[in-house]
Amino acid sequence: MNQEIDVLVIGAGPAGLAAAAAAREAGCENVLILERDDAPGGILQQCIHPGFGLHRFKEELTGPEYAQRFIDRVKELNIPIQCRTMVLDVTENRQVTAVSPEHGVEVFSAKAIVLAMGCRERTRGALMIPGTRPAGVYSAGTAQRLVNMEGLMPGKRVVILGSGDIGLIMARRMTFEGAKVLACVELMPYSSGLKRNIAQCLNDFDIPLLLSHTVTEIRGKERVEGVTVAQVDEKRRPIPGTEQYFECDTLLLSVGLIPENELSLKANIPLSPVTSGPTVDDSMQTEIPGIFSCGNVLHVHDLVDYVSLESETAGREAARFAAQTTQETPTYTVVKDGFGVRGCVPQRIRSKGAEDKVAISFRPADVYRKATWQIRAGENILLKRRAMILTPGESQRVELPREQFVGVDEVTVEVVLEEQK
Fold first, then answer.
1. Which of 126, 292, 374, 408 is most exposed, with the fewest beta carbons within 10 Å of its own?
2. Are residues 268 and 200 in the same domain?
């Protein structure tokens, strides 16, 4: 049976919950959330550490506490959440096919769709680390779920490859549970995590961070017995003679997150080669009319507070799209990555929109100290900000008045170094 839905949200994590609530508050009565897990909340269910909500609620919350704020909001608005439902297909004309134990195969026709599927971790297979395939190699997120939700300890002597935020947080968590974390090994010459997590999760517990290093071999047949770590050169190749061996029973991988965009591809939505998420305009609408994207499926965020803000924009705009009988063809300002900048979102800004301000976010391409970043339209500087340090591990976000983009074909977001001035 084909069900008619005004705004269909795929995913009941922090992005999907915020988008659905915003859509209902914008006047859309027919909103439905589909979630493949047993309960709403997404990845925040296993993030029991504090540090969430500082920007949004001006107080420090754990992940489950932050998620519960939005779960309660969705319940108050009487928005149905259909859990244990796997979405199989999304088409360009906004037809969604899903399956669940309770309802079997269902087909939904939506006036607007919000994609909020989140992201997944890179695995060992993506890294091609030499060695055997013993037990004891986990992604950091899997280890986090085992410890925080299942009450299981992956191991007692741990090496972490990658310095993403989940890996840094798990270094502290494993230490709390009695394990010995021997080192956090990072391929790049800088950490990919937040500075506060390096301080609180590594430095506070005397866990060494080995920058410009990687794991070159995993030893062990049935279970991990140890790993070999080597320094790498500027081309990220191991330097002979720099090897050191760590005797351990567990290797955690924190080597990056990938937006979960299989459904986006099925809908023929163009993806950005930089963010690996859809290209969108400032309403979070993809290049397929009526399909919106937000949260970590759009681009990987540092802070869930900004996921919520971005997703509320997507929800409001999806409600507006669903309510319109005719769709105008807007004019756009293209947003380009300049020197030192990767992954600007959105990639296009409408000259006309319901919201007066437009948010732009990006990641620095490298570590820059005492640098200035700016948004430039030709020779005209729309915004200039100075920073003591810019790092790829911390994205930058700014809001500008929409009127600044009217009549502008293209803007460039770029880093300006001292010697370039």
1. 126
2. no
Backbone region of residue 51 per phi and psi (left: phi > 0; alpha: psi in -120 to 50; beta: other values): left
Domain boundary among 297, 327, 357: 327
Q: So what's the pLDDT on residue 421?
A: 41
For residue 243, the tally of other CB atoms under 10 A from its CB is 13
d(C-alpha 315, C-alpha 322), whole Å: 11
Q: Is the pTM of the predicted complex or chain greater than 0.90? A: yes
Tokens of 112: 């607007």
305: enclosing H helix or E strand? helix 304-323
> Quick one: 325 exposed, middle or buried, by C-beta within 10 A (0-12, 13-18, 19+)?
exposed
For residues 67 and 189, membership in a common domain is answered with no
Report the DSSP pairing between strands 157-161 and 250-253: parallel
CATH number at residue 16: 3.50.50.60
- CATH no. for residue 415? 2.60.40
Q: What is the pLDDT of residue 353?
A: 87
How many distinct structural domains can be found in the chain?
3
Residue type at position 37 = D
Contacts of 319 by beta carbon, 8 Å cutoff, 6+ apart: 6, 7, 22, 23, 24, 26, 27, 28, 112
The amino acid that residue 195 corresponds to is K
Range of the domain at 216: 123-255
Q: Which residues of the chain have pLDDT under 50?
A: 420-421
